């Protein structure tokens, strides 16, 4: 058996593994790069077999159209596309709707809904059906009949009854067919607190403990999982959802974003769950990805200049992250002018130097050289790690973002010290960045000869589960929004660090 490549701790880096970003350098001795032709052949072979083995994940949404484009079919198609799933649609109703409310509803005749269902399900290979607005008993029944005729891998039921604006989208008589017929076929149902209350005869839901009781009661109607969503519990500082699988309750927390633009969050969440299930994720993972996506999307809509938004300079943010326990800082600045970026980098360098925390610069070798930073992190479309090494010399740290085992191998060949792997979850800080999920992260970690830092949508509610994957090469996580798009960077960093410390001990 070949010996594993020797790894030595970079002299300028702390040696603990329970860090926000821990970067470990590899042995300077590397094998020569394989001849180019062989590499090209392998890449082609890999992509052809991947295409054969992984047909496009397909979600069918059975829902109403929202003329305003924020909820319903329109939200579903956008969410599925963002998560890399194909989305076909059966329209149950056409609504005249905008951000203020629903002005009119035109219900599609039941027989025509049956015809749409037949057209799609009899011809295309649908993985997951996701339901939204089902306006009448008859529509629910038509759907149940079609699903019995054309079974799918999973059914996600979002029991849409009343819109965020308070307008009725489904007759109250549908409650009984939802409970007695559709729920029993569902893999997950996702009521908000108002819908959960109506399904349970009007019980009041004010606390997380009430949400747990409601999830347990709704589970008894027959779905395999229940997610009671707390977006409408406006008095709570967190947006907490309760997940129940029949045995265990899991609370999913997100920071409550101060915005009134939550129209369509429920539709987006259910479509994300459906997309992840279509890609083969487990239910809990699908729900976590979806929750994260909605939180990121709300963040993105409200503000992107996180530190500016919270009234801090980049220097203050770095100071606070270090005080909270960050062990490596990476400076990423996409929008500022070079001179402004360099000034910020120099200011950060001073703080990092005095605290013994290495500072890496994203993409910009020139900035790193000008402020004598400890290293550079590059993406796949930037200069290669090999070229960066030539410019920076042997003593500096070089990181490369990788999504595939082939990229990880190339990073090793090129003389990088670590790889960043992601996005693990969807994130608002990088547009159009396909997510890898736990499976993608695992594949890259197991193949990589270099230490790996997980990145993308990582926050306090999912960092533990990333580290609990127990991947030997996974040395830490890189975090942006979860620390900086918050009122207290010190508190968030401390919290994140304690989560990582606890999971690395277990
Ligand atoms: N202001 C907010 N900040 C963060 N997450 C939110 C906010 N509002 C809703 N969410 C989340 O969006 C998802 C949809 O929830 P909710 O709005 O309760 O459903 P619905 O749209 O069906 O009423 C849930 O995961 C919820 O926690
Ligand atoms: C056609 C249609 N379907 C669903 C919703 C619910 O969305 P939300 O509860 O987020 O307003 C909506 N408003 N319109
Ligand atoms: Mg909502």
From TrEMBL:
Catalytic reaction list: 2-[(2R,5Z)-2-carboxy-4-methylthiazol-5(2H)-ylidene]ethyl phosphate + 4-amino-2-methyl-5-(diphosphooxymethyl)pyrimidine + 2 H(+) = thiamine phosphate + CO2 + diphosphate; 2-(2-carboxy-4-methylthiazol-5-yl)ethyl phosphate + 4-amino-2-methyl-5-(diphosphooxymethyl)pyrimidine + 2 H(+) = thiamine phosphate + CO2 + diphosphate; 4-methyl-5-(2-phosphooxyethyl)-thiazole + 4-amino-2-methyl-5-(diphosphooxymethyl)pyrimidine + H(+) = thiamine phosphate + diphosphate; 4-amino-5-hydroxymethyl-2-methylpyrimidine + ATP = 4-amino-2-methyl-5-(phosphooxymethyl)pyrimidine + ADP + H(+)
Biased composition (Polar residues): 1-10
Chief location bin: plastid
Recorded family membership: Belongs to the thiamine-phosphate synthase family.
Residues spanning the signal sequence: none
GO molecular function: ATP binding; hydroxymethylpyrimidine kinase activity; metal ion binding; phosphomethylpyrimidine kinase activity; thiamine-phosphate diphosphorylase activity
Cofactor(s) essential for the protein: Mg(2+)
Role of this protein: Essential for thiamine biosynthesis. Bifunctional enzyme that catalyzes the phosphorylation of hydroxymethylpyrimidine phosphate (HMP-P) to HMP-PP and condenses 4-methyl-5-(beta-hydroxyethyl)thiazole monophosphate (THZ-P) and 2-methyl-4-amino-5-hydroxymethyl pyrimidine pyrophosphate (HMP-PP) to form thiamine monophosphate (TMP).
UniProt-listed HAMAP family: TMP_synthase (MF_00097)
Record's protein name: Pyridoxamine kinase/Phosphomethylpyrimidine kinase domain-containing protein
Localisation: Plastid, Chloroplast
Gene Ontology biological-process entries: thiamine biosynthetic process; thiamine diphosphate biosynthetic process
The keyword Transmembrane appears for this protein: no
Compositional bias segments (type: Low complexity): 11-28
GO annotation, cellular component aspect: chloroplast
InterPro entries from the UniProt entry: Aldolase_TIM (IPR013785), HMP/HMP-P_kinase_dom (IPR004399), PM/HMP-P_kinase-1 (IPR013749), Ribokinase-like (IPR029056), ThiamineP_synth_sf (IPR036206), ThiamineP_synth_TenI (IPR022998), TMP_synthase (IPR034291)
Keyword tags: ATP-binding, Chloroplast, Kinase, Magnesium, Metal-binding, Multifunctional enzyme, Nucleotide-binding, Plastid, Thiamine biosynthesis, Transferase, Transit peptide
CDD domains, per the entry: HMPP_kinase, TMP_TenI
Organism in which the protein naturally occurs: Oryza nivara (Indian wild rice)
Domain Pyridoxamine kinase/Phosphomethylpyrimidine kinase: 66-307
Pfam families given in the database record: Phos_pyr_kin
């Amino acid at each position: 058996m070949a010996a594993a490549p020797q790894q030595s701790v970079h002299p300028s880096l702390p040696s603990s593994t329970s860090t926000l970003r821990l970067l470990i350098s590899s042995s300077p001795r590397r094998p020569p790069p394989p001849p180019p032709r062989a590499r090209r052949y392998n890449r082609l072979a890999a992509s052809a077999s991947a295409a054969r083995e992984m047909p496009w994940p397909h979600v069918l949404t059975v829902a109403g159209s929202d003329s305003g484009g924020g909820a319903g079919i329109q939200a579903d198609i956008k969410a599925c596309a963002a998560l890399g799933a194909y989305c076909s649609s059966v329209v149950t109703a056409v609504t005249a709707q905008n951000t203020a409310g629903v002005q009119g509803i035109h219900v599609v005749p039941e027989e025509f809904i049956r015809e749409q269902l037949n057209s799609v399900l009899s011809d295309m290979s649908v993985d997951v059906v996701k339901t939204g607005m089902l306006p009448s008993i008859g529509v629910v029944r038509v759907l149940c009949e079609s699903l019995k005729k054309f079974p799918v891998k999973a059914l996600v039921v979002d029991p849409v009854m009343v819109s965020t604006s308070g307008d009725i989208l489904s007759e109250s008589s549908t409650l009984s067919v939802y409970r007695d017929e559709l729920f029993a076929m569902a893999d997950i149902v996702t009521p908000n607190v108002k819908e959960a209350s109506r399904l349970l005869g009007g019980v009041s839901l004010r606390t997380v403990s009430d949400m747990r009781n409601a999830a347990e009661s709704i589970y008894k109607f027959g779905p395999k999982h229940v997610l009671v969503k707390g977006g409408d519990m406006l008095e709570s500082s967190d947006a907490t959802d309760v997940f129940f699988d029949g045995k265990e309750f899991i609370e999913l927390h997100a920071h409550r974003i101060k915005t009134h633009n939550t129209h369509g969050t429920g539709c987006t969440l259910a479509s994300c769950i459906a997309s992840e299930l279509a890609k083969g994720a487990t239910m809990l993972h699908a729900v976590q990805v979806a929750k994260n996506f909605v939180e990121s999307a709300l963040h993105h809509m409200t503000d992107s200049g996180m530190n500016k938004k919270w009234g801090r300079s980049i220097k203050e943010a770095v100071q606070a992250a270090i005080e909270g326990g960050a062990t490596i800082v990476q400076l990423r600045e996409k929008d500022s002018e070079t001179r402004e970026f360099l000034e910020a980098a120099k200011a950060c360098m001073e703080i990092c130097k005095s605290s013994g925390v290495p500072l890496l610069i994203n993409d910009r070798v020139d900035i790193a050289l000008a402020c004598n930073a400890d290293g550079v992190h590059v993406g796949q479309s930037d200069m290669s790690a090999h070229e960066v090494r030539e410019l920076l010399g042997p003593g500096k740290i070089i990181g490369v973002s990788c999504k595939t085992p082939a990229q990880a191998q190339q990073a090793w060949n090129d003389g990088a010290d670590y790889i960043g792997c992601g996005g693990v979850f969807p994130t608002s800080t990088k547009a159009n960045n396909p997510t890898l999920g736990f499976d993608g992260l695992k594949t890259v970690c197991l193949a990589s000869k270099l230490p790996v830092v997980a990145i993308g949508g990582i926050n306090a509610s999912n960092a533990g589960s990333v580290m609990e994957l127990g991947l030997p090469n996974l040395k830490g996580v890189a975090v942006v929004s979860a620390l900086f798009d918050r009122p207290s960077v010190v508190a968030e960093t401390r919290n994140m660090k304690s989560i990582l410390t606890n999971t690395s001990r277990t």
